[in-house]
Design goal:
The chain is an all-alpha fold and about 270 residues long. The chain is built from twelve helices and two strands; from the N terminus they run H-H-H-H-H-H-H-H-H-H-E-H-H-E.
Length: about 270
């Protein structure tokens, strides 16, 4: 029997409870990934939440994102008994309840006028477009992010930022903190927020920009270089946050002018 549900917010708790009581976290993670959710065991472990609470929060965030395609696939997967472990520990699986939930999900999707589910890759491409990252990142990070290679996307963005600054000041040999100091530090930096850099408040802002650039090198770029691949940026959300920060730094550079830039004299 199909209950009359108003929206996914009223249905989600039922799905979360059904999954949490039906099998272990390993099978749940596998099912959700196969349905198209961006999820991993590390995300669950780091959340320090119960299975039911973790699933509930994941579903709420997914529903808010507008990508209901994963729910459409999940409606079919909860009918696959192999994902569940009834009889082990306290796990239970009621085929009739599974069938009812599957129909409720599909009815809810139909009621909300859901379009044909988009793939996980299409969803990542949509996210990338929505965030409107600095154009320079399109060539080095976009395809990697869309394909789900999050750490590589961030790593290439870090390298691009360094190359961008090198080109800005005409120095292809300085790297890391040396490059950041040469470009942004001192009373007469090569890349300055203000020209001329005179007032105390202006100099404080310049020091702040230098600190942000140095922090990117020491905390993000160096971690990517020194740690095992796949350990720094594990999730899509983490990649988005770092790419947004690097994009902000690139845009801040664009708003500055090289110290030796001369005004064109019209003849």
């Amino acid at each position: 029997m199909i209950r009359k549900v108003k929206d996914f917010n009223t249905l989600i708790p039922h799905i979360a409870r059904f999954l949490a009581t039906g099998t272990d976290y390993g099978s749940i993670i596998l099912m959700l990934k196969n349905a198209g959710f961006e999820v991993s065991f590390e995300m669950y472990a780091n959340s320090k939440r119960s299975k039911e609470d973790f699933i509930h929060e994941l579903f709420i965030n997914q529903e808010k994102s507008g990508n209901t395609g994963s729910f459409a696939r999940l409606a079919d997967l909860i009918l696959v008994k192999e994902y569940f472990r009834p009889g082990e520990y306290t796990y239970t699986y009621n085929p009739e309840e599974a069938d009812g939930l599957s129909k409720e999900i599909k009815a809810c999707l139909k009621k909300e006028g859901a379009k044909k589910p988009i793939s996980a890759k299409e969803f990542r491409a949509l996210i990338y477009k929505i965030f409107s990252f600095h154009g320079g990142l399109d060539a080095v990070s976009k395809d990697l992010f869309v394909d789900g290679h999050y750490e590589q996307a961030v790593d290439e963005a870090c390298k691009f930022l360094e190359n961008y600054i090198q080109d800005k000041i005409g120095d292809k040999t300085s790297i890391g903190l040396e490059l950041m100091s040469k470009a942004f530090a001192g009373d007469n930096p090569l890349v300055a927020v203000y020209q001329p850099l005179e007032a105390k408040e202006q100099k404080n802002e310049q020091r702040g920009l230098h600190a942000l650039m140095s922090g990117e090198v020491q905390f993000i770029k160096n971690r990517l270089s020194h740690k095992t691949t796949g350990t720094v940026v594990r999730t899509r959300d983490r990649a988005i946050k770092i790419l947004s920060f690097i994009s902000f730094l690139l845009e801040s550079i664009d708003e500055c002018s090289p110290e030796d830039e001369e005004e064109e004299i019209p003849f």
